[in-house]
Amino acid sequence: MARELAAIVNPGAFKARKKDPERMLADFNLYMKSFNDFLVVTDNNDATGAKKKSLLRAVGGIDMVFLFDHVGKVAENASYEDAVNAIRMEITGQTNQAMIRYKLFRGMSQGEESFSSWWAKVKEQADKCLFEGYNVKAAARDAILFQTSDVRLRKKVLAEDYGLEDTVKLGLAYEQTQTKAAAMGTNKEDESKSAVRRLVEEVARLSLSPGEGSEKVKCQTCSGTH
Predict the structure, then answer these.
(1) N or C: which end of the chain has fewer CB within 10 A?
(2) DSSP string, the chain
(3) Are 173 and 77 contained in the same domain?
(4) Residues 6+ apart with CB under 8 A from 204
């Protein structure tokens, strides 16, 4: 019976979506929950760290070995918990944290969705965020990112995952560029208005008032003078 139950809860080989770190992180977290259940069912929950690591590599397959050796770069003497955390941290580091937190705080409105299903999605998104070391600078960067009216700045910071210093530099640069462009536009507009005004004045100067500079002659048709 225990063997049958173990076969049921066996999570099988892990499939790493190497080109999608965000999705791979979610898959890894879900896989580890299933694997820990597997340890309990197979009476290995209290096994040594070395045995747990060996089981994880064996059950997880070639992609799990890849995570151990090339992603987490797990040391031989690392504990089971440290090995799992190292892999998780490295996968998280490959994700765009700016984009993940932006979606968490600004892109998950409940709308018409039921709270019971909506909050679970919010929690899943929060699990993808790396809050270790989240400090004043990171919070300030996020506040700028989430609330700036400069769409170009928001897109650039999201795409490049800039820190606070680079975000501020870019914001100031965009503002200065816009100010210079506006000043150049104003100068051209003033020059255009001045040219039109000079033309109007010239036309007015050349225009003659009725009768001024003209000579009355006798009309051959009506015998009047014009």
Answers:
(1) N
(2) -HHHHHHHH--------TT-HHHHHHHHHHHHHHHHHHHHHTT-TTS-HHHHHHHHHHHHHHHHHHIIIIIS---TT--HHHHHHHHHHHHHHHS-HHHHHHHHHHS---TTS-HHHHHHHHHHHHHT---TT--HHHHHHHHHHHH-S-HHHHHHHHHHT--HHHHHHHHHHHHHHHHHHHHHHHHHHHHHHHHHHHHHHHHHHH---TTTT----B-TTTS-B-
(3) no
(4) none
Q: pLDDT at position 131, please? A: 82
Look up the domain containing 47 and give its range: 2-94
Reduced to 3 states, what is the DSSP secondary structure of residue 43?
A: coil
Same domain, 47 and 124: no
Q: For residues 90 and 71, is the Cβ–Cβ distance under 8 A?
A: yes
Q: For the residues 9-26, what does the mean pLDDT come to?
A: 89
Tokens 């994880």 found at = 56
Who contacts 2 (Cβ-Cβ below 8 Å, separation ≥6)?
Answer: 41, 42, 43
pLDDT tens, residue by residue, 106-117:
899 999 999 999
pTM for this one? Answer: 0.55
Pairwise CA distance, residues 124 & 133, whole Å: 20
